[in-house]
Fold these 2 entries.
Entry 1:
Amino acid sequence: MKAELTNKFLEKYGQEPTAHYFTPGRVNLIGEHIDYNGGLVMPCAVTLGTWLLMAPNNDNVIRFKSINFEEEATIELKSAYEKTGPEWFNYPLGVFNEILKKHTLPTGLDLLFYGNIPIGSGLSSSASIEVAMAYALNDYFKLGYEKIELPLLAQKVENEFIGVNCGIMDQFAVAFGETDKAIVLNCDNLKYKIVDCNLGDYSLAIINTNKPRKLAESKYNERVAECQTALAQLNQEIKLHNLCELNAEKFALHSHLITDESVLRRATHVIKENDRVNHAAKALNEGNLTEFGRLMYASHQSLKDLYEVTGAELDAVVDFCKDYEHVIGARMTGAGFGGCAIALLKKGQEEDFAKQLTDYYVERIGYPAAIYISEIGNGSSRI
Ligand code: ADP
Ligand code: MG
């Protein structure tokens, strides 16, 4: 890949790149719709992601090109920028905007991006390209940012420059991921633990439902509001900042305060899912992948029945996995209503899995899903 991309760079810019970087995408292994309730999530970096090649130029401009998109841009090096429209280069431009508030760069840059991660499918290609840019500038110009500052900077770009109100999980996972490790991140205080997640004979299959995520945003906001309602009603008796401060036992003592039946189901998912993350971390610690897989299925079931964010496409994938003997766990990952599912798939079964799942999915849904095989990989690095 590196050599191929180097040639592309040479072709596009007429000079060799002087640095190559890679930043992965991420999946959330378990702990869904938990981040905005101050609980635990368990993301990991994948081996699909975004490459960034660069070289300095003497023209005092930043040139943005991506193999994934046709639009290109040449933008003068200044001390501040505003978002120029919906084009992709606003993601890295937002990173320049943040960094140039504090630093001046000695030269312009020619940049080439390439992502082999499905874009716009919930594997966080956006966090990947933002952190890729931040990591590269920090490394190349020795700007002195601490490692923890880069995902925070990238999140700020996504929130303020791009205008997408995401939490910290994605940027954190793509910056901090490690091979065969998962991150248990407390979304309330950002404390985190890196835990062993050796998948042994299993790979991470990532199944993109290819369903347009039209409903996703409005439904997502609806779920956030329902959790806020549950929190307000519980706070008539107790004092909580977040739903995830309650475990299942304590929740049972106060859940009668929640008046609306569907709000009660949402809150029940949140409390139990948060518990499941603790159990999942314990299972990994004991090397018990079978239990981990069982918890993945339980998570999906809860997201289907209690949280109602799965939909026919994600359910079709997980239903197939339950009956497929070489998968030990599967669930939707990300916000839901489409996007991707993940499955723990026995190594060596990739082709058969892809073929059988494709037949099943097309029959049930009417169009194919896309299947990617990944390992748990490293966070941002110079390659
Ligand atoms: P997701 O993060 O789920 O993949 P988003 O809609 O949040 O989806 O972010 C996708 C956007 O990020 C793309 O539309 C594009 O603007 C930008 N992006 C991601 N990867 C690349 C890439 N390799 N090249 C150019 N832009 C990219
Ligand atoms: Mg995104």
Entry 2:
Amino acid sequence: KARNSHEPEFLQAVQEVAETVLPYIAGQEIYSGKNILLRMVEPERAITFRVSWVDDQGEIHVNRGYRIQMNSAIGPYKGGLRFHPSVNMSILKFLAFEQVFKNSLTTLPMGGGKGGSDFDPKGKSDAEIMRFCHNFMAELCRHIGPNTDVPAGDIGVGAREIGYLFGMYKKIRNEFTGVLTGKGLSWGGSLIRPEATGYGTVYFAQSMLETKRDSFNGKKVVISGSGNVAQYAAEKVLHLGGTVLTLSDSSGYIHDKEGIDEEKLAHVMYLKNEKRVRISEYIEKYPNAEFHAGEKPWNVVCDVALPCATQNELDGDDAKALLANGCMAVAEGANMPSTPEAVSAFHESKILFAPGKASNAGGVATSGLEMSQNSLRISWTREEVDERLKGIMKNIHDVCVSYGTEGNYVNYVKGANIAGFVKVADAMLAQGVV
Ligand code: NDP
């Protein structure tokens, strides 16, 4: 704790795992006295580097690039790149740590990592984004590779950025390999990868609802965020007969009482992915909806909440508001969006609560499927990938139930942490102290 006292998000993520895993370790002779968790919290390698780039006016800027290679016990490091001004060591270490457990849960052979930069893509031209991505990869390329470390997208890094990053990797290394996931379909990408995190989150929530003999049909759903994860979570909720009431971005949220249907969602995708503007523009086309500047959607009456924007976006008071309004299930599409106070409130009230490392694992799982397709040099159909994704999410749900059941309540946080831990810990034990 002392060594990382200046890294609050990282401590928060470790604390949550320690609270559930340490009591488990204490009861298991094979793990005791091996300091396994102590070894897991120290990254195998953490790299920072300078990224200088020139803007359209000819001015030179300097940002900091990072790659945290957290754990490679069960496979090459795997995890996204985030471009956002808030990026720092604490945030990336928390994300990399969570990624180790998440990747273990997918049942695929992937270690954990995360990276990115404090570069702010908002308001930048396409040419500026390209120059930044190229200069970022000019350094990162020496630390990654298809059998070493395979980055993907995250906040601020979507298909466009992955394209520029891949282009520079290929130029420098002179090889066409599956070194990044989230690639375009014509150059090694996988069908369903763009949809996978959002779809997977809803598949997981559906499995939770099924334990109560319930479903999404007719449910009122509030979603935060309007990026990759939020858009496809909304799409899958609509497929399953639910009503999506809200979406948001860092400027506020929109509340459409009539529901955000497929046509309206297509407009959101246009605003966010092509026009790249604020979510408030939604009400220009749909004036019956409301825009709440600077607020989050957690006061809107709903049955299910899907936080899909960023860490710590749902605090204890937000959780109380959701519970008071009768919310019965929360599944995290984002990483660690609920604060510890919010998680405690959900557990105390015994509603269904899925932590991101379980419910949003569909993205990295499908990245794992992209890696397999690249290695085999084949492409699976949309249906094949979606079936595998569904199967993986069902498996993750079921393993959480088997490790997390306490009486007649399933503590999915405990289940995910212990199930994720066991596989990595066993591999580390087998490989010795290295
Ligand atoms: P995008 O960049 O596509 O979208 C992010 C969304 O969250 C935007 O609506 C953005 O609003 C909002 N947001 C970001 N930062 C903040 C902030 N500080 N305060 C309020 N809103 C914010 O990212 P993704 O959809 O890919 O990622 C969303 C979450 O899901 C992240 O926690 C990410 O780690 C997690 N995740 C993503 C996966 C993936 O496959 N993409 C896989 C697993 C987890 P604005 O545009 O105003 O910034």
